[in-house]
Amino acid sequence: MPRSTSSWRPAFVRYVVGRGVSTAGTALVNVVLAFAVLAAGGDGFSVGLVLACSVLTQTLLIPVGGVVADRVDRRTVVVLGNAALAAAHGTTGLLLLLAPERVTVWMFAAAAVTTGAAGAAVHPAFQGLVVQLVPPTALQGANASLRLVLNLARIAVPGLGAVLATAFGHGQVLIAAAVAFGACSAVLAGLRVVTPPRAVGAVLTGAREGWAAFRSRPWLWGYALAGTVAVPLWLAGYQLLGPLVLSGRAGGQAHWGWAVSAFSGGMVLGSLIALRWRPRRVMLACVLVQLVWPLPLAVLAARPELPWLLASMLVGGVSLELAVVFYETARQQQVPEGLIGRVTSLSMFGETALVPLAYVLAGTVADRIGSTSVMWVCCAGILAVTVALLPVRDVRRLRRLPAAGRGVATAEAPGPDEFPESSGSGQSGGSAGEAKCLTRSPRPTGRRLAVDRACVVRGTAGHGTPGRVCAVHVAGEVS
Question: Where are the stretches annotated Disordered (predicted)?
Answer without folding.
Answer: 406-446
